[in-house]
Give the backbone structure.
Amino acid sequence: MKIKVLPESVYSKIAAGEVIDKPASIVRELIDNSIDAKATEIVISLKKGGIEEITVRDNGCGMDKEDLATSILKHSTSKIETTEDLNNIQTMGFRGEALYSVNTVSKLTITSSTDDSGQTPGYKICEENSFTAQAVACRKGTKIEIRDLFYNLPARKKFLKSATAELNAVKSIVYEKIFATLNISYSLYNDGKLLFRTNGDGDFENAFFAVYKLEDPFSINKFEYQSKSSPIKVTIYHSPADIFFQSRKYQTMFVNSRPITCPFFYSAISKGYSSYVSPNRHPLIFVFLETDPSLIDVNIHPAKREVKFFDQAAAFNTIMQGTMAAFSSKIRRELSLEPSDPFSDDDDIYPFAKIELADVDPSGKNADVIYPTAYSDKINTQRDYPDLDDIYYNFNESNKPYSPFGKELPKESGSLFEKYEALKVQPAAKLPHIKQKETSNDFKILSVAFDTYIIVEKNDKLYFVDQHAVEEAYIYMKKKEAYSQNPDSERLMIPVLFEIEKLPKNLNEKLEQLNSCGFCIEENEGSTYSISEIPCVLKNMSTGQLTQTLSSFLQDDADDERTIIDKILITASCRQAVKKGDRLTAIQIEEIITRFFKYNIMNCPHGRPVYFEIPRMTFERNFQRRR
């Protein structure tokens, strides 16, 4: 078979197929041209989802008679002139192939004007008059009409989907352009019906809810980030950590206002918000990168959907760090707590002079587990009995009333006075094992619900704090600090043996990763392994906790964005923390709440929230004390 050069009538259609494959492709190219023409208003009108007709009209700079005739020629463009310009692309379009390709596979009409005063006519070209420019009256801007898409390519036309599917594809393109250019007003019509309109006021939240009308309203936060070590500037729009979706449908990346797909984008943002959002939950996050055009290559994809970074590691780290800063910054601002005095780590001194206890071992060695019901700023030694509101009952399986002060109520109490007598408290001055110390804590611990959630009053709000999540986060923070300061290993005097019941396919890879992080784990017989060295940060773990932690990690097939040592430290912290349902002493409760406020702990290492709050105003409105 001889090699021959294809005629233009053939290769032009092949080239057009690389750019134009469906109505959405045409809409994308035409909107790009309108953006480059400095338009502030773009109107898209479709018939049958764009299969029958597409019209895009803008109020941009327009084209004169000469440019209009040249615009449909092959490789005609006003955006680049030399090869060097490809290294500094600052426009949406640049190849000069959009209108030529569209004209090759459809019936095209263009009307344009550069004058808004009416003194200079506009011009129109179309296939019917052999694309000879004709003077017409029109307003400044450009109007492009496309009919009968793929009329001359029946094989391509039969692969078009239904009108609904093609319309959805167009809508996705328009959505991306809206968010990339918030200062442009967009309107989309289909079969004469207005689907949505944005006002181009530059507000992301207004634009989002103008197009996604069915979503329940929620706030969208804006955050700007600039790394000192990277030339990339990041602007992030994101939902609060408690607003999330089951898919990544509202996660998009833009580079210099160009929507792109990026192989590391999802990984970067997941690493950034993993400490603030639970696994398998996806917040809204739109990331806009601004960088020098010479540091990226946008000419690597026919539809310009991909961008190549000359320093991908810098881009990845900037996205990850920006996402992390966005979520952590917003969470801290929303909490807006006044800093309390540093908590003393002295094991012999506890700021508990204001807590009333009952039936405590004078030696201090066997103090009852107690639940404080109300802490006042000063000990009320005049009151013999707690208020009625301070009493609550927790009936166990034998239906014996449970006292928050650790003392069982009489099974048959004849009067309320007898119940009060059973709960009579002792002044704190009579508790020798608790040293008296004035505290500056500005919170009041009220109670514990379901042996898990500590109820705290502070700054006219009630906080419901998960005791396990706070302690887990605190332990993880301390372990992470300790590991960063001392990543060395410690040899065990006696190797620890453990068994892996379920052997994963990547077991050897995981063992290599562990051994590179300070462990020394070797295979014994069968599914038994021995541990001879561990990172120093884990030296205080019990043997049982250590083996359970390692077994869980080695048998887990889930793919996580966290590092190996992070996973180990998270699991270790979870196992060491107090558990849901553990009944804590007053001292333990005070420590947990003090750390909660001192370190602004918002989420556990798994990403779950550690608290929620109810403002005083909510109570007053619900009880109709205030409107």
User: Anything to note?
Assistant: The radius of gyration is 34 Å. The chain has 16 helices and 22 strands.
